[in-house]
Amino acid sequence: MIEEIKLDMIEYFKDDIGQIEHALKVHGFASMIAGLEKLPAGKRTATELAAILHDIGIEEAERKHNSRAGRFQEVEGPPIAREILRRHGVSEEMTDRVCFIVGNHHTYDEIDDIDFRIVVESDFIVNISEGNLNNPDIDEVRTNYFTTAAGKQILDSMYLKAR
User: Fold this and answer.
1) What's the rounded Cα separation, in Å, for the pair 101 and 117?
2) Domain limits at 77?
3) Number of structural domains, the chain?
4) Which residue of 43, 50, 57, 121 could cross-link 101, Cys pair, CB 3.0 to 4.6 Å?
5) How many CA atoms lie within 13 A of 88 on its CB side?
6) CA 118, CA 48: separation in Å to the nearest integer?
7) What's the rounded Cα separation, in Å, for the pair 95 and 82?
8) CA distance 11 to 21
9) What is the pTM of this model?
10) What is the CATH number of the domain that holds 94?
11) Cα(43)–Cα(15) distance, rounded to whole angstroms?
12) Alpha helices in the chain, H assignment, sequence order
């Protein structure tokens, strides 16, 4: 199912190669962190699905609101994610969880569990590498947004130990 949903995401974004690559990278880190944190199967699946679909609302946000801002992605993403997940027979409970994460992934005070946390940590790791954060204070990002041991280890290895 994960691979089929990745393919749907790729087909949805069509020629937006940057967005496709971003989603695949966030998924890669999320899958890795979820494995290292030894998440149970259901929570790991929710993490991976949310990572793949976290920015799925970006094109509708641009079309409807003329903006890629996170608040618009959070509004436009869940209905698209819900349709993709339903097409693949994902349970209503899992779909609701993934859509909650997709619909709040820029609202950090809504983080309520490790699956959501891992998606946020993975998105930060990728956004830093892609230059999507203006002069990030990586120590501050780590302190404010990272709680998993695996996420911290990856962030430290990639960005903090190199200084």
Assistant:
1) 9
2) 2-160
3) 1
4) 50
5) 18
6) 9
7) 6
8) 13
9) 0.94
10) 1.10.3210.10
11) 31
12) 2-13, 17-36, 41-53, 58-65, 70-87, 92-102, 114-129, 138-145, 149-155
Amino acid at 73: Q
Question: Which two three-digit tokens encode residue 90?
Answer: 């994902």
As given in the structure block, the two tokens for residue 150 are: 């695996």
* Residue where the block lists tokens 């790791």: 125
With beta carbons less than 8 A apart as the criterion, state whether 119 and 18 touch: no
Per-residue pLDDT of the chain (163 residues; tens, 9 = 90+): 999 999 999 999 999 999 999 999 999 999 999 999 999 999 999 999 999 999 999 999 898 999 888 898 989 999 999 999 999 999 999 999 999 999 999 999 999 999 999 999 999 999 999 987 776 788 899 999 999 999 999 999 998 875 4
